[in-house]
Structures are given as structure tokens and as C-alpha cells.
Amino acid sequence: MSPKGRPEGESAPKRVSAEGSPVSDESTRRITVATAWLDGCSGCHMSFLDIDERLFELATKVDIVYSPLVDAKVLPEHVDVGILEGSVSNADDLEKARAFRKCCTLLVSLGDCAVNGNVPAMRNQFKLADVMDRAFRENVTTHPVIPVACVPELLSPVRPVHDCVPVDVYVPGCPPRADAIWYVLSELIEGRTPDPATVTRFGA
Amino acid sequence: MSRIVTIDPVTRIEGHARITLTLSDAGKVEDARFHLTQFRGFEKFCEGRPYREMPALTARTCGICPVSHILASNKACDHLLSVTIPPTAEMLRRVMNLAQITQSHALSFFHLSSPDLLLGWDADPASRNVFGVMRKDPALARDGIRLRQIGQTIIEMLGGKKIHPTWVVPGGVAEPLDAVKRDAILALLPEGLDVAKRTYAFYKTLVPRFVDEARHFGTQPTLFLSLVSPKGHLEHYDGLLRIKDAKGNIVEDMVPAIEYERLIGEAAEDWSYMKFPYYKPLGYPAGIYRVGPLARLNNADACGTPYADVALAEFRMLQEQGPVASTFHYHYARLVEIIYALEMMERLLKSPDILDTRVRARARSNRDEGIGVSEAPRGTLMHHYRIDDNGLITWVNLIIATGHNNLAMNQSILQVAETYVDGNRMQEGMLNRVEAVIRCYDPCLSCASHAFGEMPLVVELADARGRVVDRLERR
Known about the structure:
Chain A is α/β, with parallel strands linked by helices. Chain A has helices at residues 43-49, 54-61, 91-103, 112-116, 128-138, 178-189, and strands at residues 31-37, 62-66, 79-85, 88-90, 104-110, 154-159, 169-171. In chain A, the strands form 2 sheets. A 5-stranded parallel beta sheet of chain A has the order 2-1-3-5-7, sandwiched between helices. A two-stranded antiparallel ribbon of chain A has the order 4-6. Chain B has 3 domains: 1-37 and 416-475, no CATH class; 84-220 and 329-362, Cytochrome-c3 Hydrogenase, chain B (Orthogonal Bundle), CATH 1.10.645; 221-324, no CATH class. Chain B contains 16 helices and 16 strands. At the A-B interface, α1, α2 and α5 of A face β3, α1, α4, α5 and α6 of B.
């Protein structure tokens, strides 16, 4: 895939990995895709699975090289398309968003949480300490303690993905319907820049 | 010096987690922990919202089982209104819930766990996924995709959307069902049941291959918690709480769900964003229990539908006596429940009253505290709200299906790690087995992170002083 056009948005990134040239072999060109969920509900990934039998067609054109749906534990260094669901709420989310930007030629912000913060960002109107206290001190019947070990630090405020790293394609919706996701993927596979505004909207 | 192995992230589960195993000098597993690494804060940030927003807001705890949250939330709101919803509305809510159980269980079995069962624990991680299953056994993969699609399509036909539908409302449902849609849903069910029976028959042939896993995948004695119907039958929408012990004795029965706080307490630990519910009379952490398909089938006297009852009898034969203990058999229980869900949807949709247009009781809030409990695909789900005189939320507590299983999941990974992990000769397949026992529970970490966060899976080796000396991630 050689993404010719760039989305109109001002945050269209300058970088095109390897000068926009395909990462894999020209002749047996299969697109590599990585996906991750940050702070969200997994609903966008579920909506992706709702493309149903089209998964078979997708599998002929695309390799999912990193995703909660497959077992790779490490993001490859060069990926054609990265898809992020969810907002950036903790240190792990931020690290993952940066890694995706670094490794992926095109970065897709999938769903309202990624695009505008949505429900996860509702916690921004409260002090983080109060949010933690409610969960781990007030709403327990024994052994109240705030988790700090082996868990990522929470960030405040919760932010949409493009507030942390440049994003190429925005696909709003809560979640975007499977047909909208299929349209976006198909366009990217064909080397075109999708215009998701034609198929989805905030809260769709 | 001991070491810590970290598996991070745990894959083919729904959410973010990490597992740490502590190994002794001799390479023996001494401890295992399951860490949820996402925290969201619904219990706080819903404060100040009108209670009628809660179903749509809390649906966003989980895109896999949004219907469960929508139902538990609306039941809590029904309680706030102090109404009994019309019988047809209850039947329609039940249909949507059963459709969700069908799709969610299909996702767990086909998309997430079948790669282990069909391709093997030690298969190449690069192809050990649903796409690998599509290549190895396309017919089975098609069945799984179709079954999930049938569940999702029924949800969409009822609620207008596959994920986060808004049709269920406080007091009932927003729109009655019409004959055209009913017939369209009924037309899907025979195919779904064919797929479910075919898969069940196939899975029974697989079970003998996994005798060893069944013996070591989380066989710890625990209590089992679930709703049952007033007759003691399998129940997913309403009903009463029952707790059985590991020997099959009923220790709590016919407890109204709104009294859950009498049975269930919650503890926190500083190493996970997931809390640790426990059975109060036994205290923490002794009050360990399991929820979900395994617990529901162990607790139910019968399913109440013909084919599912045959399958239930076969399920009980997995163990010589008493409740089925092995966590590995969650897979089996899930397939039995899919059959039940499809049979029960047909029965409900053929009821003469299903097209009744009286589907919504209208009232304003008549109480300042509401509790809603239902069975999500992964187990008992509890929503508990308090509101002020203006109907604005002042306090929320959510106890999520996956949370109930937290103590048991930790115990299970320890057992599997002790059995299969050799610290002197670490291999990827060993770690995959540790992840696989987590997959048996089908944890929904999106849900569990309502208060907490995501779970990545990492294995770290720590020395006796707790210093991390080694870390293993699967590549």
C-alpha cells in the first residue's frame, strides 16, 4: 500500500516510514496491520469482528501482526497500518500510542474514545485521587489499599490519541459500525485514503 | 535466588493483563499473580449524571457484553422507579440477553480459545489465532463466525445496533416487537442450533485429549455463585442467588439479589486494579468462589430446555460426583449454554404474548437506592446506585462478573504454573498454558477495569527480596 493522499486534518503527520514505500515485497504484497486497545471497552474491536465472513477475505490481503486477537507480544518495527481503540489514560497507553506512531506508516484513531476521549474522559472532571479512593477505599469491605505495584501509573487528564501523537485517519462512532470499519480497511488496502465522514459519525 | 517471569500482555483475552510468576532458585514456581492494568473509574465519574443515562454510560464498560450492563443498569433503574416491568418487556429483555450469551460465548470459544484446542498449546504463536483456525479448519471457523453473527444480528434487530443498543430503558423496552422482526429472528434460530449442536458434538470428541489439562487447570475447591430461577433452574436475567460449595452442598439459596451485600464483600490489593470479591461468611481471602457458565451449570437443577438438558446431564458426567471442579470445563459449559440460549429464545419468541405492545412502565424515581443483578456471559453482574432528589447519581458500586473470579483466577494460574512451568527450561508453550487457563474464565477485563484498568500479561522472575531479575515476554 502506498497511501497517496493524506487526510485533510491539520494533524496529518509528516512522517511516512521508508519514504512511503511498502515495507514488504512488491510482488506478494500483503498489508501488515497492528491493532491495540487503550482505555476503551473493546467495542470497536468487536465491531471489527462484526465484519463476519469478510474476515476470510481480509485474511487473503492482510496480516494481523500484533493485536489482542493474536499472540504476538511485541509490536514489529515496521507496520503498514496501526489501529488504536480507546483513549490515553495511563502510562502504558501513552507508551503504546507512541510505539504505534513510531512503527506504523498510517495511524488510525478508531472510535469515539480514541477520537475525542468519550466516556473514559468523564473522569477528567474529578480529581484522580478521589476516583481512586471511591474504588479502592470507599467501595471495599476489607483491606482498602490503592494499587501501585505492577500496574501502570494513571495519567490526568485522559486524552484522545491525537493529543499525544499525530493521527492520519479518524473513524468516529461508539462503536463505528462494521460496514464503516470494512470501508476504511478496504480503502487502505487499495492504497486510497478513506473518508470516514461518509460512513460514520460521533455516537453512531 | 528466585526470579519473576512476566507474561505481558496476556493475549486472546478481552482486556489488558499481565501475569507474574515468582520462581525459586531451583526454578520451581512459588507464586503467581494476575494483574489487571487498566483503571477507569466509573464508580466515581458517573456521579452527578441523571440515572436514566446510566444504562448507556455503563454499557461502555464493555463492548463485548454491553447488553449485560444495559440490563443490570436498567434493572437498577426499575428498582429506583419502584415498578414491575410488563411481562412482555421482560421476555424481550431475556431474548436480547440470550442473544448476547450466544455471541459472547461463540467469541470466547471460537475466536479466542479454539486456536489452543485445535492448533495446540505449543503451536507457532504467529499463527496460533483465529486466522490460523480459518486456515486449518475453515468449516469450524465459519461456524464460529456465523454463530456470533446470529447472536449479534438478533441484538441489532431488537435494539437497532449490535454494540451499545439503547432499546432497553428504565421500566421496560422502548419499542415492542413486530411480527416481521419476530419471524426474521425465529428464522435464524434453527441454523444457530444446528451449528451449536455440531460444535458441541465435535467438542465432546476433543475432551478426552485434554484429560491432563482438565486435571490441572484450576481444580481448586471453591464455592460457586449464580442466579437460579425460583424453581432452581438455569437463569440469566433475574432470579435468586444460590451458592454451592465444592462438594455440592447448597450453602445459600433463594437469596433476593438485592441482598447481595449480605453475601459478597470486596477487598483491594496493591498489585492489581481489579478488586477481590469474597464470600463474607468465610472472610477474605478464604471466601473464594467462581461465577460464570461453570458455576451456573453446577448450581442449576436443570436447564429447562430439551437438548440443553441432555447436554447438562453429559456435563455432570465429567466428574464422578459433586460439582464439576475443573476450570478447563468452562469451555464445555459455554457450549451447553449456547444450546440453551438458542432453545430458550425460540420458546420466548413463540410465546403468544411476545408481540404485546405494552412494554414500558412509566414512572419517576420513587426510591433513592437501586440494585440490579443479572447474569452476564461471564457471571453474576451487580449494579448498585444511589440518587438524590433530582434523580442525579450520588454513588455507584459495580461488581463485575470477571471480578468475582479474581481470587480463583489467581489460584488457577498458580496451579497451572506449578504443573507446567519449569524455570530452568522456560518455553513459550508453558507460558501459553498459563494464559490458557485465564482464557477458560473468558475474563472480560474491559468490564473488570470499570474500577480498575487493563491487564497485560508478563512473566517476571524476582528474587527472594522481590527484585525482578528476569522478565519473559512471548514473541
